[in-house]
Queue: 4 jobs
Job 1
Amino acid sequence: MKPFLLLATRAEDVPADEEYALFQRFTGLDESSLVRRRLEAEPLGPVDLDDYSGVFVGGGPFNASDPIEKKSAVQQRVESEIAALLVDVLARDFPFFGACYGVGTVGTALGATIDGTHREPISVVEVCRTEAGRADPLLRGLPDRFTAFVGHKEAITVLPPAATLLVRGEACPVQMFRVGHNVYATQFHPECDVEGISTRIRAYAHHGYFGGGELDPTLAAVRRLPVPHTGGILRAFVERYAR
């Protein structure tokens, strides 16, 4: 089997390594079959998609909608590299799955409206499949309504016609979409469990996701409901596209 490629952007080692371990756990892939590239640490360089079964993009503190003057040189480089790769991905309809930051990257490539209108505090929310989502191979077998981990400062306000809405939410309407047949993005985090998102809450306590004194309530918020289904979406992606 050709490996899958994980593009990561977290600069902090603990949440970065835990994210990689979570992707391995929920996809069923090991280190040889899930190749990680930490883009915040080094340039991506040329990527031949024919070397891979598919591409994942993990989450991170970057916001696609930030004004250019507020973006670091590293963020600008990372965005440029992912954007260049997405040109090839979208042209080929190549298997791609972006989690949280994937909405910003794919949405930007499509010309979507991305802003802070539908930001969500870190928590567990209930989302629901659309009619198209019920028919999508990655979501078959999931209940129509299921829980998911969220926490983001930006989201898609207007989904372009080129994208198909698969999962919607109450506070954030665009929770998962597909472009073509094989390019996916979620606003929620299918790669998380309670321990993993708790690590991120502590690591990013001063990144503006919640205010001072709200650490304990935020940690409690991600434990208010179980999240048993979303990891299966990643496993379904691998099962569909491994080659």
Job 2
Amino acid sequence: MSAFRDERNRKALERLRRAMPEAVPGPVLRHALARPFIPPTPRRAVESYWRAHPLRADRLARGLAALSGTPDGWTWRLDGAAGTARSLSFRTPPAPFREARFSRGPGHCCICGQPVFRLGWHVDLWREGRTNHNAGWHAACVAAWRFWCEPSDHVQVLKRVQHRRCAVSGGRLLRTAEVDHRVPLFSVWRERRHEPWPALLAFWGAPNLQVVNRTAHVVKCALEAGARAGGRSGAYSAPP
């Protein structure tokens, strides 16, 4: 296995060096060379970097969204009609630039609305003065979208941020600990959906995520279910 991996990495490194552009972010290259299996192309190296750093991707994607701002005339609505690209559920983050009416076209990210450059990067490091018209996502926004939609897949990362302590009880996190939204998403839909779109994304991102032990999670969910059934949201606070 070691001999196979060494040979594969040798070939992948040769291919990566041939294809690597002159300007490449240092952290991306260092991450690629430290992988057990080196990515053979620059694009895959960039994607691997952002997958390994979902919290950075989350911050960057929300920052890029803030630069774009809420498109004129857009409101967050739930509509499953064909061609609308609107969310089917309030559990999916709103994404106005995925809708045909507000799309900025090729070379712009359909999540944050900002220009996409070579390798799916968010800055024109190569000073080419043009966007990548073959790309519709930033590599960072792809990782952020997965983080927002499937936060439970990143429980280990969130555990490390919390120093492996339960966010509700303060006790040590157990193996069965679960990812939870501090402000429940149904409350966001009911009471906050008219807030500016970039601010809404924080409710799916790291500011609104916590890891809690299952027992504490069950109690919290029961309280939220009672509040939801009663048509009130309870004393929830917005994420910082």
Job 3
Amino acid sequence: MAYRDSRPRHHQIAAELRALIMSGDLPPGARLESTQQLVSRFAVTGQTVQRALAVLKEEGFVVGRAGLGVFVRELSPIAVEPAAYMPPAQPGAGSRWTDGAGRGRGRVHLVDVREVQPPGAVNFALGLAVDSAVQLRQQVLLLDEEPVELAWLYFPLELARGTALAERKLIRGGIPRLLADAGHPPVEWTDQISARPATAEEARLLELPGEVPVLRTARTVFTTDRRPIEASVLVKGAHRYELSYRQTVVPDGRV
């Protein structure tokens, strides 16, 4: 049975053009076809084409230049490689986000620090009783002053109390550095990644356009003896990110 796309036509057109941009077939700086060419190509009205282009402009994929046309913005997706941010930073250095974002100027905005009753999945990940309280650090990661990731970071109270994890200030060198210095080096983590519509809070904090979905990562970080020391919920706008994973195979076939 043939698939019928029930989305409005302008969203269908935006999706096709977005796919071309993200695949590199329409590279940064490329000029899109004219409105009339797009009208002919998709067999729609000029108004429908303009609405499709408005979606892409709002998402930051294209920009209009008066008298010249519409061009792909000089903005490539942010490739996230989890391993790049997990090892502790060198002593005396800033966090890996602020010092090593590599795509612009990274900054961390601290939203909240307090003891909370977390979602049940967090206590399960940390190996705690269902009604246990934990330490929360909620923050927004910005790149060139644009919000690109929300993070809810949860820690066992026995590990956080009396440390900078419980203080309402940024942690110099980043959390992995602090944990390592306290004798709990992060050595392993697991990620569970899903996509879903954004909540009202996520849409507001990430300044998401339209109906852009989010990528949600539920991460558990372990120290030696596979003891869980952090459970995180990380939320990103799906239009800005791609996930990058590497795996090395050694000669005997192990990974």
Job 4
Amino acid sequence: MKIATFNVNGVKTRLPHLLRWLEREQPDVACLQELKALQEGFPEREILDAGYHPLWKGQRSWNGVAILARGVQPVEVRRELPGDASDDQSRYLEAAVNGVIVACLYLPNGNPQPGPKFDYKLAWFERLIVHARSLVDAAHPVILCGDFNVVPTDFDIYNPRSWRKDALLQPESRACWERLLAQGWTDAIRHLHPEEPIYTFWDYFRQHWQHNSGLRIDHLLLNRKLAPALRAAGVDRWVRGEEKASDHAPAWVELELAAKPARRSAGGS
């Protein structure tokens, strides 16, 4: 089973890129962030024609999340992160797909910091930590994936010097990340590639893509039940090289899940 996460940076604007990626890579599950589309503006027909059943929560501006499942309908579990009923930003979606609980998230950017946007980022992160605690030891396999807007360490960025004041590298952001991992989550990409610089985001400035001046901010975390199934993880860098591409590239994991035992018929031996 291949599960991927992709900040599309506008699902309607980047729809051709999304469809090419789905056709070429054929993930079983694709989690999307930053749809930048209202609920009724999501390209449902095009996604269905590509062989994927979508579950989505749209919103104007820089929010919006979706879960696409190839050949099956995702079963919705929840449409918001618990802990703040007044929070109306579309940043979290959770569904069951072929026995795996898939949580798709778009954690707040937090810039500029300090300020209310950074406060919101940390508050949202605290809510995520609380909810994740109920998932890490779940009886079902769980994957927590998306754009976390956190560079975990200086090894996950081409050069931290010019980013020191950015919300993605703040000690508070990194401390939240460490507390989340300490619950027992496996950072799939770093687990399989401990010594390799791997990036998922290259901004549009100063030819950062051309110079591979990237950041790793899109992550896939596996709970204790799912971690033993991890076989491969990586980034589809070619997507970032497309013309007028998103500033993110899809990150993915391949999992070897145990087949469910066949159901015996009533008259079977």
